[in-house]
Design a protein that fits this description.
About 20% of the residues are buried. By secondary structure, the protein is of the alpha+beta class. It is built from three helices and six strands. It has one domain: 2-Layer Sandwich (Translation Initiation Factor IF3). The strands form two sheets. Strands 3-4-6-5 form a four-stranded mixed β-sheet, with helices on both faces. It is globular and about 45 Å long.
């Protein structure tokens, strides 16, 4: 009987307990979101509670989102710092920061079937 290949988990853990995505998953997310337009725009007020709540709700629906940071939001902090803060607040993983655009990934929680 042939042996089945074991599939790898989506995330790996670093020393500090921080989770990172595997290269395969990062590539898949970048490929899927490459042609899409951002679904979230972060304006001059920065990452407010409303923005974070909207990102959370979109992550629950889609697993991954693309967000754009407007130049007016970048007066006090850099794009990577803002994206990292949003990822921490939403308990998601930062996939990539490219210019003023970043991608977040949060795997959906599997629903248990009702018996």
């Amino acid at each position: 009987m042939p042996q089945l290949r074991q599939t790898h988990a989506h995330t790996t853990k670093k020393k500090g307990g921080e989770k990172t995505l595997t290269k395969r998953i990062k590539r898949r997310i970048r490929h899927e979101l490459n042609a899409e337009r951002p679904t979230i725009w972060i304006g001059k007020e920065g990452a407010t509670a409303q923005i974070v709540n909207e990102i959370n709700s979109q992550l629950k629906k889609r697993e991954m989102i693309k967000a754009k940071i407007l130049k007016t939001a970048l007066k006090e902090e850099k794009a990577k710092d803002l994206a990292t803060r949003v990822a921490t607040q939403t308990e998601s993983t930062l996939v990539e920061v490219r210019g003023h655009t970043f991608m977040l990934y949060k795997p959906r929680k599997k629903k248990r079937g009702a018996h």
